[in-house]
Amino acid sequence: MSKIGTAIGTLVDLADLATPLVEPEIVPNPYQESVRLGSGGKKGKGFPSQTWRWGALNNDERAMLRTLCANESADIAIETIDPEDYASTVQYTGKVHWPDEEDPQVLKTIGFILLFTNLVEVP
Q1: Considering 3, 24, 78, 95, which has the largest number of Cβ atoms within 10 A of its Cβ?
Q2: Euclidean distance between the first and final Cα of the chain, in Å?
Q3: Alpha helices of the chain — where are they, by DSSP H?
């Protein structure tokens, strides 16, 4: 299960938050961007990032996440799938970014996405 907090020492399982959250769909990206090389290959550059996607969040679940990202972005810590071994987890510190656009419906938000960038693995 994934964990989230404002620092490594405050990590809490998503299911154990004051308002529990279901596990999101997680898309790890080992690099911030891929650059095409003259040889036709690609090279990864920058810090790892991750996208966490929920099909829908009710208003209480969205508000719970807002406490962790009160502005457009915030410092964050996460424990999540290891992009090199999906059976393992890894801890990171970095930035969380609130979505630029949301799809609010009656009592819920559809297709909610959090982006985590500038991730630094914590040994």
Answers
A1: 78
A2: 19
A3: 59-68
Q: What is the DSSP secondary structure assignment for residue 15, as one 8-state letter?
A: G
Judge whether 39 and 49 are in contact, CB under 8 Å: no
Contact 119, 93 (CB under 8 A): yes
pLDDT tens-digit series, residues 15-51: 999 999 999 999 998 888 889 999 999 998 999 999 9
3: which residues sit within 8 A by CB, 6+ positions away?
11, 12, 13, 14, 78, 79, 80
Based on DSSP, count helices (H) and strands (E) in the chain, helices before strands: 1, 10
